[in-house]
UniProtKB/TrEMBL annotation:
<dbReference type="InterPro" id="IPR014710">
    <property type="entry name" value="RmlC-like_jellyroll"/>
</dbReference>
<dbReference type="InterPro" id="IPR052535">
    <property type="entry name" value="Bacilysin_H2HPP_isomerase"/>
</dbReference>
<dbReference type="InterPro" id="IPR013096">
    <property type="entry name" value="Cupin_2"/>
</dbReference>
<feature type="domain" description="Cupin type-2">
    <location>
        <begin position="34"/>
        <end position="87"/>
    </location>
</feature>
<dbReference type="InterPro" id="IPR025499">
    <property type="entry name" value="KdgF"/>
</dbReference>
<dbReference type="InterPro" id="IPR011051">
    <property type="entry name" value="RmlC_Cupin_sf"/>
</dbReference>
<dbReference type="Pfam" id="PF07883">
    <property type="entry name" value="Cupin_2"/>
</dbReference>
<protein>
    <submittedName>
        <fullName>Cupin domain-containing protein</fullName>
    </submittedName>
</protein>
Length: 103
């Protein structure tokens, strides 16, 4: 269990830092309803995403791709990305270096 708070990221989406160090951060994003949105954004951190549960349509740069349980992928530094939840579930994201804005 994480000692970090659950933070709302918008309607039906929350995040919770699971663990962190200066070089790496692990964060759970929970999507509670079909149609919940992880807004398009970019950041300087390299991100890996693991789909723990649910199904999502991701925009990665100028491409769209669907991912489901057990899938994982890496988002390069600076790439615009976001998702729409197709089936409720949880994404586990790792960031390097850590996201100071999440602390």
């Amino acid at each position: 269990m994480s000692d970090f708070p659950v933070v709302s990221m918008g309607e039906n989406v929350t995040r919770q830092v699971l663990s962190e160090a200066p070089e790496l951060m692990v964060v759970a994003f929970r999507f509670e309803a079909e149609g919940a949105v992880g807004a398009l954004h970019n950041h300087p951190h390299v991100q890996s995403t693991y789909v723990e549960s649910g199904r999502y349509r991701f925009t990665l740069g100028d491409k769209e791709q669907e991912f489901g349980p057990g899938d994982s992928f890496v988002i390069p530094s600076g790439q615009t990305h976001g998702c729409v939840c197709l089936e409720p579930g949880t994404l586990v994201d790792c960031f390097t270096p850590r996201r100071e804005d999440f602390l």
